[in-house]
Write a structure and sequence with these properties.
The protein has about 90 residues and is mainly alpha-helical. It is built from 4 helices and 2 strands; from the N terminus they run ββαααα. The mean pLDDT is about 85.
Length: about 90
C-alpha cells in the first residue's frame, strides 16, 4: 500500500483499507488510540462499516463515557486524513 491508496495489495489480492484494518495497526500504541483499537478489535458485535454515524451510534449505545466518543471522533479524523486519496503529489 502506498500512502495515497485506500487499499492494500497482498499476494496480488486487493484488500480494502477499512477502518478496522487501519485501526489494527495501533493496537499496541500506549495511547488512547491503542485502547480504542483493542476494545474495538475484541468486540465481535462492532459494526463492519465505513459509516461514521453508524460507528458513533454503536459506541454510544455501548457506553456513556464521553471520552470514548471524543477519542473515536479524533481517531476517525486521523483515519480519514491518513487514507485520503491524493493524486496531486
Amino acid at each position: 500500500m502506498n500512502r495515497y491508496s485506500r487499499s492494500l495489495v497482498v499476494d496480488g489480492k486487493v484488500i480494502p483499507w477499512t477502518f478496522k484494518l487501519w485501526l489494527w495497526n495501533f493496537k499496541k500504541a500506549e495511547l488512547p488510540i491503542g485502547s480504542l483499537a483493542v476494545d474495538i478489535l475484541k468486540d465481535k458485535k462492532f459494526p463492519d462499516t465505513e459509516s461514521f454515524d453508524e460507528i458513533i451510534e454503536y459506541l454510544q449505545s455501548q457506553t456513556d463515557d464521553p471520552e470514548i466518543s471524543e477519542t473515536f471522533k479524533l481517531v476517525w479524523d486521523f483515519y480519514q486524513s491518513s487514507t485520503r486519496v491524493n493524486h496531486s503529489v
